[in-house]
Amino acid sequence: MNHKPKLLIAVDTYYPKIDGTLKFVEEFVKRVKNDFDYKLLVPNYQNKKDNSKITYLKISRFIKSSGYTSVKVFSFSNLRKIKNSVKEAELVFVQGPAVLSTLTIFWSRWFKKKCVYYLHVNLWEFFKSFLVTPITKVMYKIAKPLLKISLNLCSLVLIPYQELKSEIKHRGIRTKIQVARLGVDIDKFSPVKDKAQAKKKIGLAGKTVIGYVGRVSNEKNVNILLEAFKKLENQSEMALLMVGDGPENQVKIFKDTNNCKVTGFVNNVQDYLKATDIFVMPSLTETTSLATLEAMSCGLPVIVTKVGFMKNYIVKDHNGIFFPKNSSTMLAAKLEKFIREEELRETLGRNARKTIAYSFSWERSINKIKRILMEVYYK
Fold first, then answer.
1. What is the pLDDT of residues 359-375, one digit of tens each?
2. pTM as predicted
3. Which has the closest alpha carbon to 282: 327, 230, 337, 236?
4. Is residue 177 part of a domain?
């Protein structure tokens, strides 16, 4: 029997807080069982016990970023678990950037283990988007040099799209960089045959549904979406569908808004997308935006900000449209146009589906990443 390399996958987020990073890990784990003897190292948000495949780390009740709690830094238990997990591994695959991934990288360096870093978030842009309080400014001053140091300690950095490469090099990263796209399950996220039934299923029968999927938080710029929604005519015929969760004070604003539904974290995102007529991603900072890819895969017309990889795979008036980041008035105008012109929605939605079906696939993406990891392991 061929030897399967022992792969440690360190992830800064975990259930129930589903985001793009965790979605990637879910799809990756499904497809690597025959290639790697993998183990996961994750935050313990649900008070779970360690098992043969997963090691859970204690979380801090005080340190938060955009609603996310961090693992405890000053915990002997956490440090011991990270140390032992890295020591047992033959290859380390980090999903970052945050505390857990940074500590894992330092232990990887200590034990001279090869470490591959998948940069899911442009941290420099992320912090720049909401440096509004003294604590976020302090966090940025700490995180900025730490990210540079940790990336330069890795064997390889993976990024989801080419343009991010120049940004990383500009920040002083000397480690080798390769591009590995994210993907979509195009069978799971597919156009719905009966939109009316899909709306009925989630309690929004008869409504024109404007949807968003992701964190309900500052860096996602969701308040602009709310402002735009309130400017629309015929409010009683509309519904703003927010699929996700976030800081309680921000979520409450949406829950208190008429004709607005907030789902919290859900495992069946596809059911909500299939009930949606128009998808909006108002984010100030994105890399790939898996949520947008999934919406497009469902055949939805999308309205997005021109950030990250979205500005490359979305072609204006072909498979989506753009709006200025901080203009709720312009967003409202784009929404009104889509609401009035059903044929335009259908055309852009069909083209959006074709874009994903032809250019994005989990199989293709993860097969490439598996090859890259094997090359690093055997090098």
1. 898 988 999 999 999 99
2. 0.83
3. 327
4. yes
